[in-house]
Design brief:
Chain lengths: 431, 127
C-alpha cells in the first residue's frame, strides 16, 4: 500500500487519538506521540484558501499538517486592481508573496490540482504527485463561460481583455487605455449577476473615467450592463456617474452583449445593436472552475457549488469544504475577497472542531466591501451574517446591511479606510 | 442532474443571490450556540474553547493583529475588556461617530461582544 493511503485501522486509531486529546475543550487537536497529524490539503491560494491554510495552523496550534496547492508564485489582489487602470496603483502594489504562510508552517506547493478523488480522499497534481487528505479545502475561484458570448474565447481575451482576474490581464487593459488616442471610446460589458465582485464593474467605470477625464478628456466610456439596473451601491454610483463623470460615462442598463466582433472592435447586443469602441473590456459570465465541476462539487445551475453553511462542507462530497466565489452564495452574500476570507476562517474553525470530535460552532461572519470612485474617495457596502439553524443558512443580521451615506465628506475618510482594509486583509491571509 | 432554474441566475435587484435551502434537520444545543454538523459524530463533546477565537476573527480582516506603519484603525489586542464593550455599544446606539462600525456592531449579540472583548483583552498588545 502506498504511503499516503493509511489502512482503515490506522485511520480509526488516529481518530480515536484525536477524540481523546480533545476532551478538555482545548482548540488544538494534539495527536498522541508517534501518530501522524491530521492532514488538510487546501487547493487555491486566493482570499479563501490562503486564509483557511493560515488559520488551520493557528487554531490547531500547529497540530494539523496543512498543504496549500497554488499555481502562482505570488498572490495578486483583485480588490484595488481597478486602480491600476487609472494609474494610481501599480500591479506590484497589489502583489504579496506566499512566504508568510511558510512561517506559519503551511507547506506551500507551487503546483496545480488536476483531479480530486472524493471517494478515496486524495488529490492528483499536475506534477504527477498525489496528496491524501483527512479534510480537503477547495477554493478554486471562477472560470469564464466563454461560449456564452459569440466570438469570444480565452484567446480573444488578448484583444479584448476581461481584467477580471488581477495580473497580466489588468496590465493589458491599462496599456490599451494608455495607447488610445484622446477622443476614443471605451466599452465595458457587465454580465448578469451572479458574478465575482458585484460593485466591481461600476468601480472600474469610475477608475477609467477618472483616467480619461485627467488625460484624455475628449474620450467617452460606455457601460453596457446586462442587468436591469446596477446590482450594487446603485444610488452612490448613479450620483458619481452623473456628478463626477458627466459627459464621460454613458451608462446603459438592460444591455447584454451577445456577440463580439473582435476585428471590427464592436459589441453586438442581444437585440442586434452594434456598438463600436477603441478599447473593449468584456467581463464574461462566470462559474466555479472545471476542477470543482469534474469532482462533482458543482450542484447549482451547472455553475456553483452548494455548501452546508455551518462548515462550508460540500453537499455532495463529505470532508470536502468549498470556499469563496465558487459557492452558490447565501442570500445577498456577495462573491468577494472579504467574504472568501471569512469563508476560510469559517471552514478552518469547523475543521479544527470536527477533527477534534466536536460539533462546529455556529458562525457569525462579516462582509465589508469598498469601491474607489477616484484615486482617493471610496464608498462601502457591508453586512453581518449569522448562522440560522432553522434554515441552515447564513442570514443577514437585522440592522447590519447598508452602504455609505450620500455625505461626500465621509468618502475621503472611507478612502483612507479602504486602503487600510486592503493592506490588513492581505496581511490577515498571508502574513 | 437537471433541476429547476434557480433564482440566483435571474437578474434580480440588489445582489439578487438566493441560495437553496438545504433540507437537513438541525438541532440546537444549549443557548443555540452549537448546532449539529451535517456529518454524524459519535458523541456530543463539550463546546470548544475556541469559540472566542473564531468570533474575534471576524474583526481581523480590518483591524490588524500586528503593528503596521501608517495603520489608521485601532489595534484591538491588549485593550481593556470594558473599553471595547463600551466602544461597541456606543457604535450600536450612534453615540460614537462611524462610517461602517454602526452597521457591524449590530451583528453581534451582547454575549458575543463580551466574548470578543474578553478575548482581545487577554491578548498581548502588539509591539
Amino acid at each position: 500500500m502506498a504511503p499516503w493511503s493509511p489502512t482503515r485501522r490506522e485511520l480509526l486509531r488516529r481518530s480515536l487519538a484525536v477524540a481523546a486529546a480533545s476532551s478538555v475543550g482545548a482548540s488544538a487537536s494534539v495527536p498522541a506521540p508517534g501518530r501522524a497529524a491530521a492532514r488538510v490539503v487546501v487547493i487555491g491560494g486566493g482570499f479563501g484558501g490562503a486564509t483557511a491554510a493560515k488559520y488551520l495552523r493557528l487554531w490547531s496550534n500547529g497540530s494539523i499538517a496543512v498543504t496549500l496547492v497554488e499555481a502562482d508564485a505570488a498572490f495578486v489582489s483583485c480588490p484595488l486592481s481597478n486602480l491600476v487602470l487609472d494609474g494610481s496603483r501599480r500591479i506590484d502594489d497589489l502583489t504579496v508573496s506566499y512566504r508568510g504562510l511558510a512561517r506559519h508552517g503551511v507547506n506551500v506547493l507551487r503546483d496545480t490540482a488536476s483531479a480530486i478523488d472524493v471517494e478515496k480522499n486524495r488529490v492528483r497534481l499536475a506534477s504527477g504527485a498525489t496528496l491524501a487528505y483527512d479534510r480537503l479545502v477547495v477554493s478554486p475561484g471562477i472560470e469564464f463561460i466563454w461560449d456564452s458570448v459569440l466570438g469570444m474565447s480565452a484567446a480573444t481575451a488578448e484583444q479584448i481583455p476581461h481584467a477580471w482576474q488581477a495580473g497580466p490581464q489588468t496590465v493589458l487593459l491599462r496599456r490599451r487605455l494608455e495607447a488610445m488616442a484622446d477622443g476614443g471610446t471605451v466599452l465595458i460589458s457587465v454580465p448578469l449577476i451572479p458574478y465575482r465582485c458585484p460593485p466591481g464593474p461600476y468601480e472600474r467605470a469610475c477608475q477609467i473615467a477618472h483616467y480619461l477625464q485627467r488625460v484624455k478628456p475628449k474620450s467617452k466610456l460606455i457601460v453596457l450592463d446586462a442587468n436591469p439596473e446596477m446590482v450594487s451601491k446603485k444610488p452612490l454610483f448613479t450620483r458619481v456617474f452623473n456628478e463626477d463623470y458627466r459627459g464621460i460615462i454613458d451608462y446603459r442598463n438592460d444591455a447584454p452583449v451577445a456577440e463580439v466582433d473582435v476585428s471590427g472592435r464592436a459589441f453586438i447586443l442581444d437585440l442586434g445593436d452594434r456598438i463600436t469602441g477603441d478599447v473593449l473590456n468584456l467581463i464574461p459570465p462566470q462559474r466555479a472552475t472545471r476542477l470543482a465541476r469534474d469532482a462533482g462539487l458543482v450542484t447549482a445551475n451547472d455553475r456553483w457549488c452548494e455548501v452546508d453553511w455551518l462548515t462550508m462542507e460540500s453537499i455532495k462530497a463529505s470532508k470536502v469544504h468549498v470556499l469563496g466565489d465558487a459557492t452558490l452564495a447565501a442570500e445577498t452574500m456577495p462573491k468577494s475577497g472579504h467574504v472568501a476570507n471569512q469563508h476560510g476562517k469559517l471552514a478552518a474553525a469547523a475543521i479544527v472542531e470536527l477533527l477534534n470530535g466536536r460539533q462546529p460552532i455556529a458562525p457569525t461572519i462579516t462582509s465589508t466591501c469598498y469601491s474607489f470612485i477616484d484615486d482617493k474617495n471610496a464608498v462601502h457596502v457591508a453586512s453581518v451574517f449569522r448562522w440560522a439553524a432553522e434554515t441552515r443558512t447564513l442570514s443577514v443580521v437585522p440592522g447590519t446591511s447598508g452602504t455609505s451615506s450620500q455625505d461626500r465628506a465621509t468618502w475621503a475618510q472611507e478612502g483612507v479606510y479602504a486602503m487600510n482594509w486592503a493592506r490588513t486583509l492581505w496581511a490577515d491571509m498571508l502574513a | 442532474m437537471l433541476g429547476p432554474r434557480r433564482a440566483q441566475d435571474s437578474p434580480l435587484t440588489s445582489f439578487g443571490e438566493r441560495s437553496a435551502v438545504i433540507p437537513i434537520v438541525a438541532f440546537a444545543i444549549g443557548a443555540g450556540l452549537v448546532a449539529a454538523a451535517a456529518v454524524a459524530t459519535p458523541t456530543v463533546p463539550p463546546a470548544s474553547a475556541g469559540a472566542a477565537n473564531y468570533l474575534a476573527a471576524a474583526c481581523t480582516n480590518c483591524h490588524a493583529t500586528t503593528k503596521v506603519a501608517g495603520d489608521v484603525l485601532p489595534l484591538l489586542a491588549g485593550q481593556p475588556k470594558e473599553t471595547l464593550i463600551d466602544k461597541l455599544e456606543r457604535f450600536r446606539d450612534g453615540r460614537a461617530a462611524a462610517t461602517v462600525m454602526q452597521q457591524l456592531a449590530n451583528g453581534f449579540s451582547p454575549e458575543q461582544i463580551e466574548a470578543i472583548a474578553e478575548y482581545f483583552a487577554q491578548q498581548a498588545q502588539p509591539r
